[in-house]
Amino acid sequence: MVSASFLPVAPGGGRLQPVGIDQIRILGGFWGDRQQLNADKLIPHSLRWETKVGWIENFVRAAEGTIGGRHQGREFADSDVYKLIEAMAWEVGRTGDEDLDAEIERLGALIEAVQGDDGYLNTRFGNPGQEPRYSAFAWGHELYCYGHLIQAAVARIRTGHEGAIVRVAIKAADHVCREFGKGAREDVCGHPEIEVALAELSRATGDARYLEQARIFLDRRGHGILPDIEFGRSYYQDDEPFRESTVLRGHSVRALYLCAAAVDIAVEKGDAELLEIARLQFDATIARRTYITGGMGSHHQDEAFGVDFELPPDRSYCETCAGIGSVMVAWRLLLATGDLRYGDVIERALYNIVAASPSEAGDGFFYANTLHRRTPAMPADPDEALPRANASLRAPWFEVSCCPTNVARTFASLSTLVATASDDAVQIVQYAPASIEAEVAGSPVRLTMATGYPYDGRVVVTVDEAEAPFDLELRIPGWAAGATLGGETVEPGTCRIEGLTTDDVIELDLPLAPRLVRPDSRIDAVRGTVAVERGPFVLCVESVDLPGGLDVAEIEVLRGAEPTASGRGAAIRGRRVRHAAAPWPYGPDAAVAEGDAEFDITLVPYHSWANRGPVTMRVWVPEQA
Amino acid sequence: MVSASFLPVAPGGGRLQPVGIDQIRILGGFWGDRQQLNADKLIPHSLRWETKVGWIENFVRAAEGTIGGRHQGREFADSDVYKLIEAMAWEVGRTGDEDLDAEIERLGALIEAVQGDDGYLNTRFGNPGQEPRYSAFAWGHELYCYGHLIQAAVARIRTGHEGAIVRVAIKAADHVCREFGKGAREDVCGHPEIEVALAELSRATGDARYLEQARIFLDRRGHGILPDIEFGRSYYQDDEPFRESTVLRGHSVRALYLCAAAVDIAVEKGDAELLEIARLQFDATIARRTYITGGMGSHHQDEAFGVDFELPPDRSYCETCAGIGSVMVAWRLLLATGDLRYGDVIERALYNIVAASPSEAGDGFFYANTLHRRTPAMPADPDEALPRANASLRAPWFEVSCCPTNVARTFASLSTLVATASDDAVQIVQYAPASIEAEVAGSPVRLTMATGYPYDGRVVVTVDEAEAPFDLELRIPGWAAGATLGGETVEPGTCRIEGLTTDDVIELDLPLAPRLVRPDSRIDAVRGTVAVERGPFVLCVESVDLPGGLDVAEIEVLRGAEPTASGRGAAIRGRRVRHAAAPWPYGPDAAVAEGDAEFDITLVPYHSWANRGPVTMRVWVPEQA
């Protein structure tokens, strides 16, 4: 194994180096609370549910040879067990939790018992009484499952463990290289994931075969290898080669996982052209196909991107996993290009998609993250798994339950996103109370970041130790016009402070006044509306906060009104809109709405919505015409 | 058999009596052209495709006992053969076409050979090597298929024929009453249709059992008999009893077919309460869940209604069959209540949904009828059946091909919608060049309607014969403010002219100047936009008509501009909008768009769009802020 820090992503090149979760500790605050919630609730909850719904038992039955006709869950159920193991592995790395470590080994033994001598591993295919292996590339998800197995193994390797999961994953990866390598079977999986996993396994083991296999999969896709389906081959990015594409399209999570892999492959292969292609695709997606929350995916039907500027708030899909996928891509691009603005993308998705998914109690999750809820959602049954995108309040589990474990692995490994290092500098990418140990030009640097961010804009970075002078780069968020460093105004982008040494203290003030935001005029679905942001938070109106039992459909913001801070959110002056009851909703006068008394509209951080019972909610609020 | 005119719908009660397709002849014009297209193209095209894709061969194989494992098409493929036979039957009634008559008998013989001794009939279930009969009520569509079989038989009965289809349908209906009657199996079909068919068969045969069976199905549904599914039981209206519902919901076509049946049952049973429930549900749906085109269904995912005012133009589903279903409901309500305003609903759906589906050449169909096309659709392969809602130009056939034959049966029987009769009056419901023979208080009345409508607003009705004086009622469309009768202004609604006798001439002038229309302020997705209508037509902008290669995303209507007539559509003053290219589409200034030179925006009737190659298109055009 190649030595590395506790790193989810460890590129062999690129402009910035990541810092491991053993070197960056989040010390409470917004993300510290979520890491604690993850340890206390999300991970045990996920293990309990994967046991309850039989996805772990699948491995026992497969090992016994009795799985035929009795497989539980969807084709890709194995992957969620692997993703949970990955979450546990980072959590063991973060905390040293020995019980979790033992649980990983217990699960690893169950999994290892299923694996064939040749490395094939799946509980849904290829066992007695089941369809044959590799008979359903479009929907079978066998390679996708290997991908998550491999990512779990990488987490074990990077946190200093070996054991069953690592053995099994390497054996599976070797099997994949033999079966799907150059000159072997010319197939790709309907769901990209193996690519990003193999690239990281190559980094973790130093074995270039895995990287090459990832590249083969990337370049093989896009030539109509998978069957045409109702959604079109764009659904699984098999409609055109990645290198010829200009924007992400089709199933959002599939597109994002593939794009993340492309960055990894580009960096490891030194393929600057491929890196630029991936960057342009992602930038175009951010500019034209992303919701204000950072959410991606406009279509419920196929969990897919719409076309440019097709971003309906009430049918926004914004799958939690797509938010995580966008963090994966943005993080890799940030490391590769050194452009800290990708930290803006990460911040937006983390605060407004990833943080929105789990309930405050940690016992339910949003799969889809709508920007507009027109009718109050009913609470989900705490004992029943829902279909993937059921229109309820957060559900305890899903039949397609990719999101909960994806949140868990992201939370467990979150601290790596806080800072990076380069040859002569440390970069602060996300603001949170944290201790940071990095290395600049071979010299250790220790920093402490003290902040109440995102509720307080002051960030104090203290240099606890620096053997040699180093520079500090701070990401000034794009929204933070008016930020000051030691009282001096700094522009959004990257702010560099040179020659820091031990005991130096940096004071950054980020402006947290609420901001009125308007949409691009091409986003037809929210024409004539405004939104309010505050710091990294997108805010929303919940009906529970409106006076007199008003619904979110009955309000508008006064023209010229400016938001003011209120609690953790904001307030803005608005009025009630009365709609005429008419038998037909179109006509010369149909749009006339009559306002009456004015009042303050309360807005709260979007991520916190639907924690106070059934409500209606909207992010984009109509503005007085 | 009970004697009746050539009537698709022949209620035993209600305020108005329908007039048969043998008594109303459409004499050219907009709908005459479409009836001719139906005879020349749509019906032969459908027969050719049902042969090509094997749906007719299914009957041959089922009769031979070799269908197991070889069934072609979806579970409900039989129904489209039946719907085609219904279209042919009305066409035979309309024209006396002997070749079509022979074709019906040929198909009838194939079908009869499949029917079991007990009346069961299906090529997809219950045959050797297939799943057992009635093992899949949610998705099996067996009762749905009987429904369309029965409607085909009703068309044969009503046009004076007997033969195989009639024998088979009655045997199937008897089977259904035995199998699913009171005290028998307590099931309902996942797709309503049998109800409306049984009610009409009861009318056509005088056998009250069929009506009672329809009532049993109506009242049995809504109690969670069908399995819960991802879309919820509302998808197939099994979430709450029809009599407790207040608005249509779930799958649009399912909801509309069920509502049509409810009106029929209410009328035949004298159940005024049920009639009122159906009326209120439909009225609420028109007021809050219907697109300006009369289209219904906001969700691609489940072909379903959204919640109130959730009407996104770019994701409008507006299935052609839902447009036909809304005509079915509105027609039954018009007959039952005598309220001619339901003729407005019918007119809107006919001109803007049903007429929009087939291409001008009669060789392709829209399944979904979007109000906003953001990227040019590619032409469909003329030799390949597409999935149901593929985002292309009109397709020659679909894997789910309910729409083409639904259009065909509607066109063939269209003339019945033109006029009705009551005890003392004839009602003109739709304007078209036509001859009308009706009976008022036992006395024959013959009228000729001469008009160039919808392209010319003058309608001249001549009384060719009236044995006794009678009254004439005219539907003045809701949009027709300023209409005049003999030079005198008449109000939208019903205009009654009393005491007409032979040789009287009535001259109605409907104003066909283009009208600017705005949406209800609760329809968030089209806030800040306007549409233009002209006569019964909703207009749209196609990119092919814009100057300088502009796209429909780059225009706005000038504030205060009024549309003027242009060709069969309109023109309205607008300007180009330049959008700033920005890396992130939200911000304090993101909505600022810069206009330049003004020009006329050309609008054409929506139904005609996409007949001139790939274009972008929009009905709702942004208005200068």
Automatic annotation (TrEMBL), chains A, B:
<dbReference type="InterPro" id="IPR012878">
    <property type="entry name" value="Beta-AFase-like_GH127_cat"/>
</dbReference>
<protein>
    <submittedName>
        <fullName>Glycoside hydrolase family 127 protein</fullName>
    </submittedName>
</protein>
<feature type="domain" description="Non-reducing end beta-L-arabinofuranosidase-like GH127 middle">
    <location>
        <begin position="426"/>
        <end position="485"/>
    </location>
</feature>
<dbReference type="InterPro" id="IPR049046">
    <property type="entry name" value="Beta-AFase-like_GH127_middle"/>
</dbReference>
<dbReference type="Pfam" id="PF07944">
    <property type="entry name" value="Beta-AFase-like_GH127_cat"/>
</dbReference>
<keyword id="KW-0378">Hydrolase</keyword>
<dbReference type="InterPro" id="IPR049174">
    <property type="entry name" value="Beta-AFase-like"/>
</dbReference>
<feature type="domain" description="Non-reducing end beta-L-arabinofuranosidase-like GH127 C-terminal">
    <location>
        <begin position="514"/>
        <end position="622"/>
    </location>
</feature>
<dbReference type="Pfam" id="PF20736">
    <property type="entry name" value="Glyco_hydro127M"/>
</dbReference>
<dbReference type="InterPro" id="IPR049049">
    <property type="entry name" value="Beta-AFase-like_GH127_C"/>
</dbReference>
<dbReference type="Pfam" id="PF20737">
    <property type="entry name" value="Glyco_hydro127C"/>
</dbReference>
<dbReference type="GO" id="GO:0016787">
    <property type="term" value="F:hydrolase activity"/>
</dbReference>
<feature type="domain" description="Non-reducing end beta-L-arabinofuranosidase-like GH127 catalytic">
    <location>
        <begin position="24"/>
        <end position="415"/>
    </location>
</feature>
